[in-house]
Amino acid sequence: MRLLQQAQAAFGTISLMAQFFEVHPDNPQPRLLKQAAALLAKGEILAVPTDSSYALVCHLDDKDAVDQLRRIRQVDDKHHLTLLCRDLSELANYARVDNRQYRLLKAATPGPYTFLLEATKEVPRRVSHPQRKTIGLRVPEHKALGELLMLHGEPLLATTLIPPGDTEPLNDAAEIRERFEKQIGGVVDAGACASEPTTVVDLTPMGSGDDPVLVRKGRGPLAPLGL
C-alpha cells in the first residue's frame, strides 16, 4: 500500500487499465457516455474524439488530474490548455468577451477553432497562461463529445493527444488505449477523427481595438473569421 501511495504521489493517480467506450458517431449511446462522465467526475483523464483530432480531457477544477494531463503530454505551464465548451453561453464564465469578439465567435462556432481570450478569475491560475493570463476556448462540432460535455455539465480542460516526441496527434482509438492504458481512465471511440489540428486565433488584441491574430492555420477555414 505504501508503495502505491508513493507512486501516486510521484506520478498521479494510476489507472490499472483504460476503459473503452465504443459509441456510434451519430447516435452515441447515453449509457456509455454516462459511464465516461462518471470517470471524469472521479478525477480520471479520458481520450476523446473532437472535430479536429483526439484530445486528452479532464475536470477543470481537479489539480491532480491537470498535473497528470501535463505529465502525459510532457508540457509545462506555459503550454496553452484549452477549455472545451458546450456552447457560447459558457464562455462568459471563463473569458472576458466584448461585443466585437462575441460576433466573431458566434460566426465560427461550433467548429474546429481554438480562440485565445483573456481569462476571468473563474479560471484557476494553474490552467491559464502564467504570463499573459489567457485561456484557449473552443466549441467543438462533434456529436459524441457534445453529449459528453452535456452530461459533465461544465467545460472540460483539454490538450491535443500528441504523444511525447511525436509531431502528429493519434487518430486510432485502439492505438491510444494500447499506448496510454496505464495513464488514463478511458477512451471514447467514435471512429477516426480528422487528422488536422484546429485553427488557432488570438482574440485578445480586439480588446484594445486591433484585429485578431492568426496563430495557426488549421482545419477551420478563415472566411468566417474575416481573415
| Low-confidence regions | 1-15
Provide the CATH topology. Answer: DHBP synthase
Can you tell me the number of structural domains?
Answer: 1
Q: What is the approximate shape?
A: globular
Question: What is the radius of gyration?
Answer: 17 Å
- Write the H/E string, N to C: HEHEEHEHEHEEHEHEEE
CATH superfamily: DHBP synthase
CATH architecture: Alpha-Beta Complex
The amount of beta strand, in percent, is 15-25%
- End-to-end gap: 57 Å
Relative helix content? 25-40%
What is the CATH top level name?
Alpha Beta
Describe the sheet with the most strands: 11 strands, mixed
Structural class: alpha/beta
Please count the beta strands (DSSP E, at least 2 residues each).
11
- Average pLDDT, rounded to a whole number, is 86
Instruction: Give the count of helical stretches.
Output: 7
Structural write-up:
The chain has one domain: DHBP synthase (Alpha-Beta Complex), CATH 3.90.870. The protein is of the alpha/beta class. The chain is built from 7 helices and 11 strands. Helix 2 packs across helix 6. Strands 1, 2, 3, 4, 5, 6, 7, 8, 9, 10 and 11 form an 11-stranded mixed sheet that branches.
Write a concise synopsis of the structure shown.
29% of the residues lie in helices and 20% in strands. With 227 residues, the protein is α/β, with parallel strands linked by helices. The protein has one domain (14-225): DHBP synthase (Alpha-Beta Complex).
